[in-house]
Specification:
Layout lengths: L1 H33 L3 H36 L5 H35 L12 H35 L8
Helix pairs in contact: 1-2, 1-4, 2-3, 3-4
Main location: membrane
Subcellular location: Membrane
Organism: Granulicella tundricola (strain ATCC BAA-1859 / DSM 23138 / MP5ACTX9)
Amino acid sequence: MNQALRLGQLIAMVIWVGGLIFFAFVLAPTAFSVLPTVSLAGSIVGAALRELHVLGLICGALFLAVTGVMFSQAPMKVRGRYEMEFLLAGVMVLATAYLQWNVLPAMEVDRGRANGDISSVSVDHPARVHFDRLHKRSERVEGFVLLCGLGVVFLMSRELGGTENKAA
């Protein structure tokens, strides 16, 4: 059962981290380079990001639940590895929820204040200034979430690679 739980844990995290990587390095740059307007690209990227957040929150909840079960079944001497994974994944979930329910809605308000096209207003327009600040924050927080996810994958790979005690 422990192997099945660990596999579920790994799949949940890899789906989330893979989605973040695909979004940041494939989808967003491609949308902005191929689509005819920045507004259209932004609409597609924003919608995709909202869906990625939902996927991340589901994967994160699954990961946290499975990690909690594994922690409760593990001998005391190996519980530390689950604690760090749980902590990192918990931070990922909280950061993703913050972006989904605070930052992205505020960016949509700014887009509305710019008549739906933030790139059509001057760079000193209040909506644009606020949008750009939120966009920068979003990029930083998403990058942090990705780094935390890679940290979790690294911790899991150490166990799978045999460099940690396998007493669990």
